[in-house]
Amino acid sequence: MLKIALTKGRIEKNMTETFEKIGYDITNLMNKDRELQINIEDKLQIIFAKSNDVVTFIEHGVVDIGIVGSDTLLENAFKDYYELLDLEIGKCCFAVCSYPDYRNLNLNRRKKIATKYPNITKKYFERKEEDVEIIKLEGSVELGPVVGLTDAIVDIVETGSTLKANGLEVIERIANISTRLICNKTKFKYKKEEILNLVDLIEKHK
Ligand code: PRP
Fold first, then answer.
1. CATH classification code of 92-176
2. What's the CATH code, domain 2-90+178-205?
3. Closest C-alpha to ligand 1, atom 19
4. CB neighbours (10 Å) of residue 2?
5. Does the predicted model carry a pTM greater than 0.90?
């Protein structure tokens, strides 16, 4: 049996459809209530977790496979996994966003940037050789400029409607994001065939 850590929410919903298309009996998935772990037939054991915890479970080898957004993978310090598949779902991008006049800002202080992703933000501004102050927010990052806390944000943009509704816009795209299937390296060594078979099935039915 393969153990899979699935990111709760949209990815979980998408993967439920994929498992159904593959032909698995997804009754347990559909009937799931507060359970954190369910089995699909006697083939897959699935746990439902927050995205960073999916990476933690892969890091500690308690699951074979993780399904998680590349935003989390880029931000997380742990990189010692195999990325076996781009599921091409949950597509969005990281971008620097602000009010239109951000481009003409001429401040005599460091720019302030709000984000849920301080590592990605730090790397991006280091590449640009721009010294900024990064302020971590946990959600609704757009509030940074809206309440006057920061000059801009680095955040995920999907439809752009949150930005638009708050008078903000994309200043610069940083990177594309999509859902990835990752694998613990040791588990891959011992369960290679089983893992690759599943990856093949998912790829054909995604
Ligand atoms: C994400 C992101 C943006 C929004 C972008 O937030 O942080 O706020 O989605 O989507 P859009 O371009 O389609 O409007 P999420 O809904 O995950 O909530 P959070 O900000 O509270 O984390």
1. 3.40.190.10
2. 3.40.190.10
3. 139
4. 18
5. yes
CA distance 24 to 94: 34
Q: Is 162 in the pocket of ligand 1 (CB under 6 A)?
A: yes
Domain boundaries, the chain: 2-90+178-205, 92-176
Q: What is the pLDDT of residues 73-120, one digit of tens each?
A: 999 999 999 999 999 999 999 999 999 999 888 888 999 999 999 999
| Residue nearest to ligand 1 atom 21, measured at CA | 139
Mutual angle of helices 185-205 and 10-22, in 10-degree steps: 70
Residue 107's pLDDT is 85
DSSP, collapsed to helix, strand or coil, labels residue 157 as strand
What's the rounded Cα separation, in Å, for the pair 3 and 84?
15
Pocket test for ligand 1, best of 158, 169, 179 (most atoms within 8 A of CB): 158
Among protein residues, the one with the nearest Cα to ligand 1's atom 6 is: 140
Check if 95 has its Cβ closer than 6 Å to any atom of ligand 1: no
